[in-house]
DNA sequence: AGTATAATATGATATATGTCATATAAATGT
DNA sequence: ACATTTATATGACATATATCATATTATACT
């Protein structure tokens, strides 16, 4: 089994505060798992009892709305941790995690992580900072949802996907979302999302080939996003 | 100057983890302040360098949207702390705080609080749990904004105000918000908010006298909120 | 008290966005 | 390879909600 000392997650996440001994200890108790595209990592309401380290791949965090639709709250990818909030609050997870592509994740049991909390101050500080960052993002998102049009939010989302996940050799967005998922991320109906993509296409801002989306005019897209 | 040992904030906030000695130390370094309705406690982008304890009163946390409108992200009241996220992230505050009624707050400098973080594990755990709770709330809010109508959100907000802040002797909501503020909290235009209040009034769900709002039919209001 | 200013209210209208229907294209299963 | 299902696309339409205009109150000011 691979060792935590060289793992990519260690470099980018709160785990970077752990010292050699702690990492060795971690290697001993973690379990590794391959998750196929579309598979569920955990479901809203479940007791997870630990955190997941994403070694590779991207997943969506979704929440079921009262009307039965799934809403994508956030995308989480390689190098990040999952399930921290739930572990700290000592509550079931309030979001579901579903793989958007094939993934490789490790699971660390809660008991182990809580030990680091007690003994390693920098580690708990890192976790707190991550959660604070999420909260700040959530505040920005709330305002955007309230005050910006679907068109603006879609443009912004496309740019964000471009900046965060990059592009393939053919310049299309690397991260592959269905129209349905993109709509859910933007916070709109699927048809509205498709229609606006179509508009952007006609305006020459993006190019659509199958479900591939290629941004062809970042500047104009930015102008729409920022209004 | 009043002592922290008997303060109400201590009972309800993360500070409940502090022991006698720590509280005495706190009493020595805090500064107390009276804030009049409408006054600003801090403004988005400011460096606050500490946390505020709300001994009395309620304030709104607002965020300026790109189009220049203020959006109310959250109400915070007696017994709660302000500025924790900013202190942990070591960043300027990302929200403004404005008093909705006369307030009494204490300020504790960052250096002092950070000391507790290092030495008192239960305290830092409490702070984390609070922030995690905020994040969970934010997730729920995001979904609501995306998937529920203004009418549903207004009904829900009225019920929430009723449950959280109670009512006066005449049964009207204790917390006094302008239509503008209520709209901003619900995430809609002022006129839309006024119009829907008017509708609720005609349907006999609420009663409007001046800017006072009285809920007269909780059940029906709940039905609208939950739909 | 009386005027100026701001808040609340309501009507008229525009428009963004959701919903329903249907067509086409792509993916999946056997 | 073919049929079945699912995803994407587009049109037609309904409607929720924002915007603008204008009363009507309340509130603040001197």
From TrEMBL, chains A, B:
GO cellular component: cytosol
Spans traversing the lipid bilayer: none
Xref: InterPro entries: cNMP-bd_dom, cNMP-bd_dom_sf, Env_Response_Regulators, HTH_CRP, RmlC-like_jellyroll, WH-like_DNA-bd_sf, WH_DNA-bd_sf
Domain Cyclic nucleotide-binding: 14-110
SUPFAM superfamilies listed in its UniProt record: cAMP-binding domain-like, Winged helix' DNA-binding domain
HTH crp-type domain segment(s): 148-219
PROSITE patterns from the UniProt entry: CNMP_BINDING_3, HTH_CRP_2
One Pfam family matching this protein: HTH_Crp_2
Keyword Transcription in annotation: yes
Keywords for this protein: DNA-binding, Transcription, Transcription regulation
GO MF annotation, one: DNA binding
This protein's name: Crp/Fnr family transcriptional regulator
């Amino acid at each position: 089994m691979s060792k935590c000392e060289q793992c990519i997650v260690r470099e980018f996440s709160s785990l970077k505060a752990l010292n050699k001994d702690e990492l060795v200890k971690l290697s001993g108790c973690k379990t590794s798992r391959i998750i196929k595209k579309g598979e569920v990592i955990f479901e809203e309401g479940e007791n997870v009892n630990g955190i997941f380290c994403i070694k590779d791949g991207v997943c969506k965090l979704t929440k079921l709305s009262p009307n039965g639709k799934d809403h994508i709250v956030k995308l989480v990818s390689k190098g990040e941790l999952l399930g921290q909030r739930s572990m700290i609050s000592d509550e079931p997870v309030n979001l579901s995690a579903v793989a958007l592509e094939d993934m490789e994740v490790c699971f660390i049991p809660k008991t182990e992580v809580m030990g680091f909390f007690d003994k390693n101050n920098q580690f708990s500080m890192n976790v707190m900072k991550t959660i604070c960052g999420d909260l700040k993002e959530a505040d920005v998102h709330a305002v955007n949802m309230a005050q910006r049009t679907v068109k603006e939010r879609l443009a912004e989302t496309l740019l964000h996907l471009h900046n965060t996940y990059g592009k393939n050799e053919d310049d299309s967005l690397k991260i592959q979302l269905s129209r349905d998922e993109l709509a859910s991320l933007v916070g709109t109906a699927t048809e509205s999302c498709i229609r606006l993509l179509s508009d952007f296409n006609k305006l020459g801002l993006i190019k659509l080939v199958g479900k591939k989306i290629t941004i062809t005019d970042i500047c104009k897209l930015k102008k729409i996003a920022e209004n």
